[in-house]
Amino acid sequence: MSPRPMVRPGGRSARVQESVHAAIRELVGEMGRDALTVPMVATRAGVTPSTIYRRWGDLQELLSDVAVERLCPETEPADLGSLRADLDAWAEQFLDEMASQAGRAYIRDALLGDPDGTNAGRCSAYAAEQLDAVLSRAGRRGEPAPGTELLIDRVVAPIMYRVLFRPDRLDPAYARELVTHALSAV
Fold first, then answer.
1. Domains of the chain (ranges plus CATH)?
2. pTM value?
C-alpha cells in the first residue's frame, strides 16, 4: 500500500481528484462497483492508471476515498428551534442515510480501504462537527445540552452498530429513543 501524499487545494491535484471521483461515481452508476478496474476509471477520468496507483495505491483505497467524500455532510443540520427537535431531526436523517443501501456501501468502502483508520477518523469527525453545530445553537439559545462525546456514545455509536451488525429496528422511533436517552443525562 502506498501512503497518500498530502493534496494541495486547487490546481492540478484537485482537478485530478475531482475527475477521478466523478469517473467512479459515473461508472458505479452505470455498471456497479464490482465491475470497476483502475484502467477503466483512468480512461473515464482522462488520467493514466499510474496516476491512480501513485495517488491512491489501489482500487480499494480509491473507493474508500470516494466513499469518505460521499459521507461528508453537504449542509448544516436543520435549525428547528430547540435542541430536542434539532437532535431528533439530525439523528433520524443520520440513521436514514447510514442505513440506506448507498450508505452501507459507502461505509464498507470507507473502512475496507483504510488500514490505518484515517478515513474512519474523518467520518467520525463529520458526525462530531454536525453535533457541535447543533450544540452550539442550543448554547446560544440558553438550552442545557450534553457534550458531543456523550452524543457520539449514545446516539451515533448505537446507530452505527445496528447499521453494521443488527439491521433490525432502524426507524425514526429508534433514533428519537436514542436522543431521549442521551438528553436524560443533562
1. 11-57 (1.10.10.60), 72-183 (1.10.357.10)
2. 0.82
